[in-house]
Write a structure and sequence with these properties.
Elements (H helix, E strand, L loop, with lengths): L7 H42 L2 H27 L13 H31 L8 H28 L2 H28 L5 H28 L5 H14 L4 E10 L2 E10 L5 H18 L4 E8 L6 H11 L3 E12 L2 E10 L5 H16 L5 E10 L6 E3 L6 H14 L5 E7 L2 E10 L5 H18 L5 E8 L5
Parallel strand pairs: 2-3, 5-6, 9-10
Antiparallel strand pairs: 1-2, 4-5, 7-8, 8-9
Helix pairs in contact: 1-2, 1-4, 2-3, 2-5, 2-6, 3-5, 3-6, 4-5, 5-6, 7-8, 9-10, 11-12
Length: about 475
Amino acid sequence: MATSALPQHDREALRDTAEDARLQRRTALWSLAAAAVLVVLKLGTGLLTGSLALVSAGIESSGDVIAAFLTLLAIRMALLPADRDHNYGHRRAENIAALGEAAIVFVGGSIIAFEAVRQLIEGGHHVDASWYVFVVIGLALMIDVSRIVVSLRAAKRWGSAAFRANAFNFAGDLAGSVAVLIGLGLVAAGFEQGDALAALLVACVIFFAVGRLAFENVRALMDFAPEDSRRAIEDAIAEAAPDAELRRLRLREVGGQVFADVTLGVSPATTVAADHETADRVEAAVRAVVPSSDVVVHAEPRMAGADLREQVLATALTDPDVKDAHDIAIYTDRGDAIVALHLKLDADSTLKAAHDAAERVESAIAALRPGVRAVHTHLEPIEHPVALLHEGSEHGAEADGLHDTVRRLLGTEPLECDLRETDVGPVLFLTVATDATAGLLAAHDLASELERDLRIAHPRLADVVVHTEPGVPAG
């Protein structure tokens, strides 16, 4: 699809993604160039002056060159979108690259430590601590500080493990440069072993940075979920859906993006639309805590704590052949219960298929509780849409007769009396007013009596739909 055919917000998102990719690549290239400059400065000056500390720092910086190159490759791979084989994207490449950086720097640190210990045992060697050496170290310190700042900003902006690994490496480089500065200061003051001690200190700094880097990235690859994030998300879910039961919360972080898998237990009597609305609230709550999160919410019926009617309804609707369940009645006798309900199935179903579905539902309901003694089902076809043939006003005398009957039964005028002809026969839509303080049961009884009496008085009626509204009936 052409970019111009996309919606405005999608085009803006693509532009932002492309800009982020360009900036990340530029930052990685800058780190690579800076590391290369430091290698030349430190190794060249170290070999020229005979300083093991500077040579060691140069070796550590050469590891940074490889690390920065790995970071560049990792970022290029991590920016690839999710596909069929990598459903969560490619950002784990950054963690793998960070571990590769750690291994490379560890080898360099081991070489430095070995050589420093050897010189301390065998005796010092001459080091030329001239003024230009300190200038080189000062320049290296400034470069180290600048690239640490750049890498930390990049890691925070894009949630990048590779840039965070770079920041650790550069911090180690900075500490190493400070150690070299101290060691050469000791050499200039007449303490020849200061250079070897500084080199050993650089190795210790490297080992500490490698350990922390490896720990963080192995933990990420093992899908470690921080406890503080879990608690914050659990609290947000509890506030967004207080009536739901949090059954499972699984978290994983991939390159700074959190993937949350949430399973909720909801009332079995709620509708699919209500469950979807609950899931939307939970998704929004999780994203409010972790803005970059990708959230999947699954809702399933919660039988524990639900009354028997809710359990019966949920069990009936679970059967794939049952389209609707209604008129659920529960008859109790000294702790036992007999359940009756109406099941609606596809009108094209055979009686055998409908009976098999009813058998499955009855067995499942009977297994809900030990006290369910029997289950009785009434089978009905699900209603198909009924076509209107013409307006009720064209019925003439029949409509007038129905209106007179309604007025006689009610003792007052109905709010609406609409007779419609359909392809199954005439249907009456009736709206009546009743006492606003009356209970729902009384209103339902009134509607049922009207429907019964109207069907007796007018047998041709295919259906009567009575709607009751609160109010004072007109006199």
